[in-house]
Design brief:
Elements lengths: L1 E2 L5 H10 L5 H16 L7 E7 L2 E10 L6 E9 L8 H15 L4 E7 L5 H9 L3 E11 L2 E9 L7
Parallel strand pairs: 4-5
Antiparallel strand pairs: 1-2, 2-3, 3-4, 5-7, 6-7
Length: 160
């Protein structure tokens, strides 16, 4: 795990496209947020970590404290190269973000995802990592595509 570098953008762009989970607008948003981290590494809202496998950026996570909250963090993006999935990179990325959040005295960490069928593996990944579905907003992204919010609370030792 290492910090994001400007030279990672081409590989991460390729990963986002090959995941086939994100629309072009979503990919543009993801890249815009990565550029914020690169261009202003001291801004307080976003942090990024990159997983490296065989010398290549093979995945990343974008996360950060939620403004105007006490101890809440969001995970904004997690993407792993489809050719590298199943090797624990996604879990290592989540663990890294969770560790950073805990070190900052976070109470909980949230993430959101789609209810669409092709996100089933993603939802199961979050569930196995200890996240619980906290809310559902029907038709949030578009008709028939609900927003599901998952939460991991850091309030007890059992949440480790």
């Amino acid at each position: 795990m290492r910090n994001l570098k400007a030279t990672d953008l081409p590989e991460l762009t390729d990963i986002l496209q090959r995941c086939e989970a994100f629309t072009e607008v979503e990919i543009a948003c993801a890249l815009e947020l990565l550029e914020i981290v690169i261009n202003d590494p001291h801004q307080p809202d976003y942090r990024a970590a990159v997983a490296v496998l065989d010398g290549r950026a093979s995945g990343y996570i974008l996360y950060g404290p939620v403004p105007l909250t006490e101890g809440c963090y969001d995970i904004y993006w997690v993407a792993v190269d489809p050719a590298c999935q199943g090797r624990g990179l996604g879990r290592r990325l989540l663990t890294h973000a969770e560790g950073e959040a805990r070190a900052a005295q976070a109470r909980l960490i949230c993430l959101e995802t789609s209810s669409q069928g092709h996100y089933g593996r993603t939802r199961e990944f979050y569930r196995l990592a200890g996240y619980r579905e906290e809310s559902q907003i029907r038709d949030f992204y578009r008709p028939g595509d609900d927003r599901l919010t998952y939460v991991k609370r850091f309030t007890t030792k059992e949440d480790s």
